[in-house]
Known about the structure:
The protein is an alpha+beta fold. It folds into two domains: 22-153; 161-317 and 377-491, Nucleotidyltransferase, domain 5. The chain is 46% helix and 19% strand. It has helices at residues 2-19, 26-35, 39-44, 47-67, 71-77, 81-110, 118-153, 273-279, 290-303, 318-324, 362-370, 377-394, 397-402, 404-414, 424-430, 465-477, 479-485, 488-491; strands at residues 160-165, 168-172, 178-182, 190-195, 207-215, 224-233, 240-244, 249-250, 252-253, 265-266, 309-314, 328-332, 336-342, 348-353, 356-360, 415-417, 440-443, 450-453, 461-463. The strands form seven sheets. The chain has a six-stranded mixed beta sheet with strand order 16-11-5-6-7-17. The protein has a three-stranded mixed beta sheet with strand order 8-19-18, with no helix packed on it. The protein has a two-stranded antiparallel ribbon with strand order 1-4. Helix 2 (26-35) packs parallel to helix 7 and helix 7 runs parallel beside helix 14 (404-414). The longest helix has 36 residues, at 118-153.
Amino acid sequence: MTRLLDSGSYHRPMTERRTERxxxxxxxxxxASALLPGAGQWLAGDRKKARNLFIIDALVLLVLLxxxxxxxxxxxxxxxxxxxxxxxxxxxxxxxxxxWAADDAYRTASExxxxxxxxxxxxxxxxxxxxxxxxxxxFGYYDLVQYSLITTVFDGGEAAAxxxxxxxxxxxxxxxxxxxxxxxxxxxxTTTTVAVEETPWEDLxxxxxxxxxxxxxxxxxxxRTDTMITVSIDPKTGEAAMFQVxxxxxxxxxxxxxxxxxxxxxxxxxNELWIQGERHPDxxxxxxxxxxxxxxxxxxxFLGIPIHYYALVNLDGFVDIIDAIGGVDIYVxxxxxxxxxxxxxxxxxxxxxxxxxxxxxxxxxxxxxRTRHADSDYFRMNRQKCVLEAAMRETDPTSLIRNFGKFADxxxxxxxxxxxxxxxxxxxxxxxxxxxxxxxSVRFIPPEYHLKYRDDGGLGRIANIPLVHExxxxxxxxxERAKVELNLQESEECPTAPGT
Length: 500
């Protein structure tokens, strides 16, 4: 009898333990640890393991904050191939960590919480696993696309810039600052290499990057760089200037050792230099391709400053970029009529752009930027600048992320540059110093910079190179004085709708 009573008293507590399990729902615990590893273990009562996981979470967060403490450091990480590889590895490890934490919390809670059928538990855990995977898959996609983009477009060689520059002279500005440039009228040059070190701007007074817009029109052979803008930045102060050279200057000075013409210059339209590099590769020696050497060398001599890097964009690809950001808002001050506008297929059509505020898609924005028969190349230059500014205003982070894959494909197919990958992080760190509202922009257009017409009666004009050099140095040394003397504050502004 005693044994029976003892047996009854032995079985009763076991039954009570099975029916009185009051722990958290295993699915709730798994979800909690999926969001924050350790939270599910805490709910399930395993406080020791929870504390250990919380310590790991805190360490991971501190490391992320240390490396990505601001926007610049975050963007910088996404232009370093090694950083992107490391981020992909960390992404995969984090995914595994979260999946393990969720599974462990489910198993721990199952020991004390309400029972869940095996089928329901399996389905719920698969759904939770998919939920956990989504952000990691998305991050992995953007990481791979960005890695492919920068390793495809940017130079993967040593981080050094080959520049063709004229003899350096120190020009004293009104403020007492100095800048390295070319003496007015000088035509000789040397080829130098600027190595990219931990502080790549240390020995540079200015960083000069040439932005080229290439017209790859149907029926054309080669590339014509109808847009040539040099961005010049003071690495120490962030002061920046834009120097725009129109396409129709001729007899532009050539660096020493370049060319095949008796005039020691390039006698034809300056926008055909890229083609000449392809046709006469031996005429344009240097560190880059003959076409790169030709354009960088001549623009350097034209402006009187070294050109460190260039980036060439196919303007036809600009259509896809504008469409990807949802179009741009442009104010057209006057009606534009072009009876011979060249379409992308090579045919001509009549183009009419009505005045007023307009929302333009990619094709319409390209038409607005390219047309010139209604006025001139010089009006077109300002329209191109205004379209670029409008595009930058519309490129918000949401549209960029939403269309990132398309952006990347367009850029890979339309952009060529000699900017090395290793330099990208330093460029990103430099950009916050530049105040876009204070950038001084100069267009070297007639009549002010026109010296004379060609003696042979051909197309184009001959520029007053010494005056160009003088004004470039004025802008570099004293931008505020340049704004007044060169009347830049009003002439370079994009038109806006009345009342805005």
